């Protein structure tokens, strides 16, 4: 007997619900479970029809057209199973085609993404190479500036040393000219007042340098300076000896 459009639609809907992509994605997927799901409904339908037939026979109910159909299906009817599995095979093939298309789309998307990534990576590498070249050039310029700064620093240090020497020379000349005056009033107090050992040491250092200058000069105009420097040096030496003796006595007392 030909299957009606409604029955065909119901079977197709039943197959679609029974066979879905999600079922195959499960880790515990079992083909036997899928087959059992599809066949259980058919078996239950045949069992209900058989029970209906038994009830009719037991109650002596007048057979109806549907009862006549049931009478023809007393024996196992494989047709519903064949039809269901045919629909299942068709649906599985459609599902496979759908998945194949999804796989193709995914592969194409992946290829496009890979191409885009390679393109971006190539751009990044180009930018990185350019940055490295610019960095090397900058580093070279910094090195040149650093070397120039070092040279300038060395020159400034030399100039500073020369300036200090000139300042010390001017100071010695100023002291010498004051010692060359008839009066000792203008002489720096450091040569006359020795409040502590530090001042005494500084006076001794300066007077020794002034003695060296005086010994180099033979002009009669410097006689006054030579005599004043000599007398001041003797006095500083005497004070230095006194300071040394005082420190020695204090050391002995402390012991």
Describe the protein.
The protein has 255 residues and is mainly α. It folds into two domains: 117 residues, no CATH class; 75 residues, no CATH class. The N and C termini lie far apart (139 Å). α1 runs parallel beside α5. Helices cover 82% and strands 0% of the residues.
Which series of helices and strands comes N to C? HHHHHHH
Number of helices: 7
Largest β-sheet summary: none
Structural class, judged by helices and strands? mainly alpha
What share of the residues does DSSP label as strand, in percent? under 5%
Number of domains: 2
Helix content: over 70%
The best one-word shape is rod-shaped
| Poorly predicted runs of 5 or more residues | none
Distance between the termini: 139 Å
Q: How many strands appear in the DSSP assignment?
A: 0
User: Mind telling me the C-alpha Rg?
Assistant: 61 Å
Mean pLDDT: 80
Keywords:
single chain, 255 residues, mainly alpha, 2 domains, 7 helices
Write a brief caption for the model:
This protein has two domains: 5-121, no CATH class; 180-254, no CATH class. The chain contains seven helices and no strands. The chain has helices at residues 5-18, 21-25, 31-59, 65-71, 79-179, 197-216, 223-254.
């Amino acid at each position: 007997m030909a299957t009606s459009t409604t029955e065909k639609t119901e079977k197709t809907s039943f197959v679609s619900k029974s066979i879905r992509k999600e079922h195959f994605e499960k880790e515990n997927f079992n083909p036997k479970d899928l087959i059992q799901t599809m066949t259980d409904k058919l078996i239950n339908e045949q069992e209900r029809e058989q029970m209906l037939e038994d009830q009719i026979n037991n109650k002596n109910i007048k057979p109806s057209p549907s009862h006549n159909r049931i009478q023809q299906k007393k024996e196992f009817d494989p047709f519903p199973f064949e039809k269901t599995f045919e629909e299942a095979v068709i649906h599985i093939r459609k599902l496979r085609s759908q998945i194949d298309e999804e796989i193709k789309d995914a592969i194409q998307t992946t290829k496009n993404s890979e191409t885009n990534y390679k393109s971006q990576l190539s751009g990044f590498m180009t930018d990185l190479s350019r940055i490295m070249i610019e960095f090397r050039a900058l580093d070279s310029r910094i090195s040149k500036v650093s070397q120039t700064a070092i040279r300038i620093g060395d020159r400034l240090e030399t100039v500073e040393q020369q300036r200090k020497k000139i300042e010390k020379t001017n100071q010695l000349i100023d002291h010498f000219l004051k010692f060359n005056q008839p009066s000792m009033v203008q002489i720096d107090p450091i040569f006359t007042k020795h409040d502590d050992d530090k001042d005494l040491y500084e006076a001794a250092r300066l007077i020794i340098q002034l003695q060296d200058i005086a010994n180099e000069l033979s002009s009669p105009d410097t006689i006054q300076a030579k005599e004043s420097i000599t007398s001041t040096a003797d006095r500083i030496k005497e004070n230095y000896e006194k300071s040394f003796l005082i420190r020695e006595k204090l050391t002995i007392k402390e012991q």
